[in-house]
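Structure in, sequence out. Go:
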């Protein structure tokens, strides 16, 4: 019987089978004898997607597995090509060996994509050729306007606290398959409290292929985030530009602007800084 890893598609009950040697296998139901290992690898893969870059020890703590058990499944997923190693310097460890941290690979991200993206990409290329880049931007604005209308009531229910609004936005994004999370960064003396922030991370982008070809999708999404949380935000990295996650810096040291979430409102001054080079494996 063929040994295979079954990788769940985000937002659906479908699975993709990947041969132990890393080559795609035919799709189908789980083999009866493969159950335990395959379910465990699903959990490991989903944890890498949600928390990556993440170490084997951190995964063990998250999932309740021994480091040896986690590494066995990580090795299998690495051979299948759906995850990869990012080497990062250890904090305060001097010139020691970089730590091994795991992230979803480009192949792994592509298994989570939409079969209709190739058609959409061709259509947008023709739209750009016929009507120009502004027409593509208008298309992106209309797409995110629908998301903004759906998200705004949830974000507003969180009140005026920017951290709470960011967390509400993260929950809404996760429901739509972006695998989002937030991390609060508190500025400590002698730094002013105004430098405190939230980092909003998205482990998956359902339209990554389109955003790679048309960065305006990332720009318009960033503008939407700014209006929803009520402050100017900064996009630090994107999957479309080579990062392992999409990361948005949201300052929390000042109050949210009243009514800033209104769809169609003029966005504030936004800055986008691509730091994806520091996220690539060394």
């Amino acid at each position: 019987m063929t040994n295979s890893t079954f990788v769940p598609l985000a937002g659906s009950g479908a699975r993709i089978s990947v041969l132990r040697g890393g080559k795609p296998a035919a799709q189908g139901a789980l083999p009866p004898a493969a159950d335990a290992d395959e379910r465990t690898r699903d959990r490991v893969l989903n944890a890498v997607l949600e928390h990556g870059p993440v170490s084997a020890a951190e995964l063990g703590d998250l999932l309740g597995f021994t480091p040896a058990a986690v590494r066995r499944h990580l090795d299998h997923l690495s051979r299948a090509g759906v995850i990869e190693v990012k080497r990062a310097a250890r904090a305060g460890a001097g010139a020691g060996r970089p730590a091994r941290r795991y992230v979803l690979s480009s192949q792994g991200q592509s298994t989570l994509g939409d079969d209709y993206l190739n058609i959409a990409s061709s259509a947008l290329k023709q739209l750009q050729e016929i009507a120009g880049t502004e027409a593509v931007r208008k298309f992106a604005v209309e797409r995110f306007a629908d998301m903004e209308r759906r998200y705004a009531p949830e974000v507003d229910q969180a009140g005026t606290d920017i951290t709470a609004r960011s967390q509400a936005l993260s929950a809404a994004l996760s429901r739509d398959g972006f695998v989002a999370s937030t991390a609060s960064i508190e500025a400590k003396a002698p730094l002013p409290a105004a430098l405190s922030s939230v980092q909003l991370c998205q482990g998956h982008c359902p339209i990554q292929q389109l955003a790679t070809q048309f960065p305006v999708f990332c720009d318009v999404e960033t503008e939407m985030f700014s209006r929803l949380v009520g402050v100017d935000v900064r996009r630090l990295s994107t999957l479309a530009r080579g990062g392992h996650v999409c990361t948005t810096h949201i300052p929390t040291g000042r109050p949210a602007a009243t009514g800033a979430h209104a769809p169609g409102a003029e966005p504030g001054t936004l800055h986008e800084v691509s730091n994806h080079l520091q996220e690539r494996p060394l």
